[in-house]
């Protein structure tokens, strides 16, 4: 039961790493505790897998070291992955903002990876949970529910903590800690946010979506926000959640590109209500709940009141109390510190032969195909080295 390399986790990063190493003639085993490989791939992108983003750069990622991702992203680009998708004749399309999705099913991406694994001679064992890993000299002994294995290169590709129902575990972080590697605090990300207790309840607005610009400091995203029963979701909120922590205030511009103060000033003599003037730009049902007095006639408002209304619409300061947690988060921020790893090979600097790739590393992408591109690129880099 000796292999040149063992990869723990048959997700996007693990499978891609195994393919690359197998193509180089390495004897590779992938162990997966689920009954099937790639379960997260199957549920990704609403079942259509947003498998890459054509505009990927290191700026689309959150990490303690924003430069760490550059080398791997340059070594395997979105167009490299698209070439593979085309070679397998998988139909795809750009949905928006460079996001490439399967036109059929996410299963096509998984089937492509499994076909490539078999071409590369990669062995995959499912229902195989790793219990313990021991280092003896320059070898790793991996004890699992399907036997003990020996290898000189051990790749940890066990992903993050989000969506435990499809098999996410903290195994990778525990293993890293046991070998003395530093872990950056893990938090749910790409996740809906819940209002803090001191925010008014907007549950009657649940289901309303508004094109908005959402900011924390200088970081901002313009896409829809979606009111939920307890807080906000929608792409712009998921994006900002990567940067959010409880002490940070979020500012939301509900009329990006418009000038609410100017519109109200121009209507200063109008007998129309505030709500009716702004209702050309925002849903009436929303304004009735959101504005303090939507029925007030604009001509009765002083300049200060008009300014307050404009600020509420274009600089709504929201306090969130918490996220909706790992069971609703698409990804996990934090993870194995990049300071512990080579950015070229993903090998641990202190434990030769031990590698960490994919989401278990402290590199987290925005919404839009970036996280899979990170999985492919980091897997490819490690697969070239093991
Ligand atoms: C609902 C949802 C939708 C998403 N959609 C997209 C999208 O469209 N585009 C995008 O870019 N990203 C998307 N993501 C994020 C993306 O799926 C992940 O970032 C990516 O899968 C990470 O790849 P990975 O290989 O590092 O980890 P994973 O894909 O999570 O793979 C880790 C594997 O390790 C296995 N494992 C864990 N512990 C053990 C153990 N102890 N022993 C053996 N095996 C173990 C797991 O079962 C799993 O198969 C989505 C995430 C979710 C939850």
Number of strands: 21
**Average pLDDT reading:** 97
> What's the CATH architecture of the largest domain?
3-Layer(bba) Sandwich
Ligands bound, unique: flavin-adenine dinucleotide
Protein architecture, described:
The protein is an alpha+beta fold. It folds into 2 domains: 2-187 and 331-383, FAD/NAD(P)-binding domain (3-Layer(bba) Sandwich); 193-323, no CATH class. Helix content is 27%, strand content 26%. The protein has helices at residues 12-23, 39-43, 70-75, 78-87, 107-119, 171-178, 235-241, 260-266, 274-278, 284-290, 303-314, 370-383; strands at 2-8, 28-31, 50-53, 61-62, 92-94, 99-102, 123-125, 130-136, 139-144, 147-156, 183-189, 193-195, 209-216, 219-227, 231-233, 250-253, 316-318, 320-323, 331-336, 354-356, 364-365. The strands form 5 sheets. Strands 1, 2, 7, 8, 9, 10 and 20 form a 7-stranded mixed beta sheet that branches. Strands 17-16-13-14-15-12-18 form a 7-stranded antiparallel beta sheet. α1 links the parallel β1 (2-8) and β2. The radius of gyration is 24 Å and the shape is elongated. The chain starts with a strand and ends with a helix. Residues 8-14, 31-34, 39-40, 43-45, 49-50, 129-130, 157-159, 162-163, 167-169, 171, 330-331, 358-359, 369-372, 375 line the site of flavin-adenine dinucleotide.
């Amino acid at each position: 039961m000796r292999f040149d390399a063992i990869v723990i986790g048959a997700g996007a990063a693990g499978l891609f790493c195994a393919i690359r190493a197998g193509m180089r003639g390495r004897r590779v085993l992938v162990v997966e505790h689920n009954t099937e490989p790639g379960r997260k791939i199957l549920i990704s992108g609403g079942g259509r897998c947003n498998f890459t983003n054509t505009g990927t750069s290191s700026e689309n990622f959150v990490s303690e070291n924003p430069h760490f991702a550059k080398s791997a992203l340059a070594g395997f680009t979105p167009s490299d992955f698209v070439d593979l998708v085309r070679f397998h004749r998988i139909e795809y399309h750009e949905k928006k903002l460079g996001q490439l999705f399967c036109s059929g099913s996410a299963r096509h991406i998984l089937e492509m990876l499994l076909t490539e694994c078999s071409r590369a001679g990669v062995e995959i064992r499912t229902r195989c949970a790793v219990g313990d890993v021991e280092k003896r000299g320059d070898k790793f002994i991996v004890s699992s529910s399907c036997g003990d294995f020996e290898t000189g290169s051990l790749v940890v590709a066990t992903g993050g903590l989000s969506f435990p129902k499809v098999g996410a575990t903290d195994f990778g972080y525990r293993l890293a800690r046991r070998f003395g590697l530093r872990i950056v605090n893990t938090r749910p990300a790409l996740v809906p946010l819940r209002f803090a207790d001191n925010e008014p309840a907007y549950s009657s607005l649940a289901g309303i979506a508004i094109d908005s610009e959402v900011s924390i400091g200088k970081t901002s995203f313009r896409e829809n926000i979606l009111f939920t029963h307890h807080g906000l979701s929608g792409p712009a909120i998921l994006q900002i959640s990567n940067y959010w922590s409880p002490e940070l205030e979020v500012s939301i511009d509900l009329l990006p590109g418009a000038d609410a103060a100017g519109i109200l000033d121009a209507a200063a003599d109008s007998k129309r209500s505030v709500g009716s003037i702004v209702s050309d730009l925002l849903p009436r049902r929303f304004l009735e709940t959101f504005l303090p007095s939507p029925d007030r006639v604009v001509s009765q408002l002083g300049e200060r009141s008009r300014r307050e209304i404009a600020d509420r619409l274009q600089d709504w300061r929201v306090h969130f109390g918490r996220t909706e947690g790992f069971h609703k988060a698409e990804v996990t921020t934090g993870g194995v510190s990049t300071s512990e790893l080579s950015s070229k090979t993903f090998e641990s600097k202190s434990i030769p032969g031990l590698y960490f790739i994919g989401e278990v590393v402290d590199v987290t992408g925005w919404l839009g195909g970036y996280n899979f591109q990170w999985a492919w690129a980091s897997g490819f880099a490690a697969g070239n080295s093991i």
